[in-house]
Amino acid sequence: MAALNTATVIILNGGYEFLLLKNLRETHVLERLRTLALAGKPIYGISAGAILLGPDLDLYAYLYPEDNTEQLASTTAINATTIRIYPHYDVHCEVKPQLPQLITDWEHKTGVTVKRLTNNQGLLVHGSQIQMIDSDS
């Protein structure tokens, strides 16, 4: 915890979002990350780490229930932002052609919007300001 409190920036790496969420909860880091993020500490999320900066893993529980090997009943994440993202969207659509329709169906069902990000894109969120970062431009 001391390292989190004194860090200039925090980087949350990628991997399996459900396992990462479970580990952050078990180590009591989840709440601390939320507090630090809301206080303005820069946190850089990569893939699953970026997903966890959002409110929950509900979209991923819907799309990939088999990935919840941790059998998490609650998918509440760091909740540093209300933005829900789907990273690697371009690559995942090639592997799973039905993905665009599945995400659209989930959006209609929940009334929630998902920001689809390619491997060349990211979001910079600072308070209520949101900026798309695109390495192609």
Quick description:
With 137 residues, the protein is an alpha/beta fold.
Topology:
Elements: H1 2-6, E1 10-12, H2 17-26, H3 30-38, E2 43-45, H4 48-52, H5 58-63, E3 84-86, H6 89-95, H7 99-110, E4 114-116, E5 121-126, E6 129-134
Parallel strand pairs: 1-2, 3-4
Antiparallel strand pairs: 5-6
Give an overview of the whole structure.
The chain is of the alpha/beta class. It has helices at 2-6, 17-26, 30-38, 48-52, 58-63, 89-95, 99-110, and strands at residues 10-12, 43-45, 84-86, 114-116, 121-126, 129-134. A hairpin with a 2-residue loop joins strand 5 (121-126) and strand 6 (129-134). The N and C termini lie far apart (38 Å). The model has no long low-confidence stretch (mean pLDDT 94).
Number of strands: 6
How many separate helices? 7
Biggest sheet layout: 2 strands, parallel
Strand order of the largest sheet: 1-2
> What's the overall geometry?
globular
Residue stretches low in confidence (pLDDT < 50, at least 5 long) are none
If you compute it from the alpha carbons, what radius of gyration comes out, rounded to the nearest whole angstrom? Answer: 15 Å
Task: Give the helices and strands as they follow along the chain.
Answer: HEHHEHHEHHEEE
Given the helix and strand composition, which structural class is it? alpha/beta
**C-alpha termini separation:** 38 Å
Tell me the strand percentage band.
15-25%
Average pLDDT across residues? 94
Percent of residues in helices: 25-40%
